[in-house]
Structures are given as C-alpha cells and as structure tokens.
Amino acid sequence: MIDSLPIPLSPPLTPAQQCMLINLVRRAARAEIMPRFRNLTRADVTTKSGPHDLVTEADHQAEAMLARGLQAMFPHALIVGEEAVAAKPALRDDVSEAELAFIIDPVDGTWNFVHGLPLFGVIIAVTRFGRPALGLLYDPVSDDWILADETTPSRLAAAIGAERPARVSAGGPLHELQGYMHYYLMQQERQEQLAPLLPALARCIALRCSCHEYRLLAQGAVDFVMSDVLNPWDHAAGVLACQQAGGVARMLDGRDYSTTITKGVLLSAANQDTWNRLRDHFACLLDE
C-alpha cells in the first residue's frame, strides 16, 4: 500500500540534476514558447474540453521537447504531460504507481498566452507514488523560477542574481484574506453555495494560471489558493512550493494531497490557523 511506504529522506533529484532540469525548461521556453508568444495564427490554436480550454502549438511542441529531454536524463522515470493525458486519459492513473514520475504542464495559463497576456508559466512536478517530491514553477517572461523539494525550503531564483527564500504570508482573519479560487471552473451548484461566502474575504479572484497563483502564494503576496479541479499538472508542484514556504496544503476534508485524488476541494493557505478559518468558512463543501 502507498500509505505504508517509508518517507524518503533524500530529495528526488540531486542539485546537479535540478540544474539540468531548470536548464531544460529554460531551453524549451526559448525554443518553443517565447517565439510563439503574441505571434500565433488561428491555425495554431485549438480547443479541448470546451471553448475556453485552449491549446496551442507552443503547448504541444514544448511538452514534446521537455518529455524527450526528461526521458533522456531519467530513462527509468515515468514522463506524463498534460497534452499527452488529453489524448490518452489513462496515463494519469500511472502516476500513482510510479516510483519516480515527472508531470509536465508545458504552458500553464494558455488562455492568457493566446490573448497576449504575459502571465503564463511552465510547471514541472516530480512525484513518488503520486506524492509531490519536487516542484518547479517557471516564468518564461521573467526567466525566473520557484523551486522546492521535500527536504529544502522553497526559493526564488533566476539565471542572474542571488537566490532568495520564498515565504508565505502571515495570514490573518477572514476579512483580511486575499487569494485565488477557481470559482468559474466549478459546477453551478457549488458556485451558488460559495457566492454568499465570498464577500467575507478581502479579495478572491483567479489569474487563469496556477503557476503564478502558487508562486504568489509561496512569496506571501496572497494568503490562499483553492480549487476543485484537481489536475496534477496544475497543483502537485504548487502544493509542495506552498508547504516548503511554510504554508499548509491539504484537501478540505483533511487528507494529504496526492495525484490519486480526483474529487474534492484542495486548499493551500499561509498557515494552519488561516487554513482552519477558510476550512470552517467553506464547510458547506464538506457535506457533498
């Protein structure tokens, strides 16, 4: 059983391997993502699950380059990309059985990317039997990234400049809390439950980009991120970045996050007290 496995005491990648991963992501961004930014034709953009779920040649080509590079560096690892899962959904189930898996979101925030907004990123999560072990949240526009693993605090780094720690906010009472919620991705019934509760918070919006939502949470700019759309390429890296920056990330019912969980509400917050306040405030979601 997964729950009986010993908790690894060493990070999944050595410092040298982490550098190789970062360099691969930066190369993919330079080669396949940034040349297409604000340079897409209509033929370069298609849809997946609906009219607002966009995919571009940048998504496909960046994922392909990242997958090739990761497989060469880690030949025994499972490599799973968002676009590969869109074509073959059963691939997602393989992550929970893999001793080492890399989960790729090649262009997170594709809607922003398509419409010329410089608010998108590349997310790489490394998991062990479905549990996050390393997370990379990369911004191709700024060429910087947040990196965290099981044994090391979250840190913000760039190709030029000193690395510095990433720390969550101090949290606070409900009326002071700011955060991100994937409200418009939720079912209408859930939206109707939540709508009367939102004015109690200082601010609750969405950036249409999990990469930057979790980056801002890990850096203390906001106090929480909440979602019930549990795509592992959106959340696995961000959950670890939050936790290793001093925050708390769990399912609303108290379970530890794992890529095996496909239903429920994931709440990541600045600290335990803030997490508890938000859990209690949104307790109606626990009755489902």
Which parts are unreliable, with pLDDT below 50 for 5 consecutive residues or more? none
The CATH class of the largest domain? Alpha Beta
CATH superfamily of the largest domain: Fructose-1,6-Bisphosphatase, subunit A, domain 1
Task: Tell me the radius of gyration.
Answer: 18 Å
**Largest sheet properties:** 7 strands, mixed
Task: Please give the count of helices.
Answer: 9
CATH topology of the largest domain: Fructose-1,6-Bisphosphatase, Chain A, domain 1
Summing up helix and strand content along with how strands pair, one would put the structural category as alpha+beta
Mean pLDDT: 94
- Our count of domains comes out at 2
Looking at the overall shape, the CATH architecture of the largest domain is 2-Layer Sandwich
Distance between the termini: 27 Å
- The general outline is globular
Strand line-up of the largest beta sheet? 3-4-5-6-7-8-9
- Helical residues, percent: 25-40%
Q: H/E series, N to C?
A: HEEHEHHEHEEEEEEHEHEHEEH
**Count of distinct strands:** 14
Strand content: 15-25%
Molecular structure report:
This protein folds into two domains: 2-165, 2-Layer Sandwich (Fructose-1,6-Bisphosphatase, Chain A, domain 1); 174-287, D-Maltodextrin-Binding Protein, domain 2 (3-Layer(aba) Sandwich). α1 (15-33) runs antiparallel to α2 (57-73) and α7 (210-218) packs parallel to α8. It is an alpha+beta fold and 288 residues long. The longest helix is centred in the first third of the chain and has 19 residues, at 15-33. A seven-stranded mixed β-sheet has the order 3-4-5-6-7-8-9, with helices on both faces. Strands 11-10-12-14-13 form a five-stranded mixed β-sheet, with helices on both faces. A hairpin with a 2-residue loop joins β5 (121-128) and β6 (131-139). The chain has nine helices and 14 strands. The protein is 31% helix and 24% strand. GO terms for molecular function: inositol monophosphate 1-phosphatase activity; metal ion binding. Belongs to the inositol monophosphatase superfamily. Keywords: Hydrolase, Magnesium, Metal-binding. InterPro entries: Inositol_monoP_metal-BS (IPR020583), Inositol_monophosphatase-like (IPR000760). Mg(2+) binds at residues 82, 105, 108, 234.
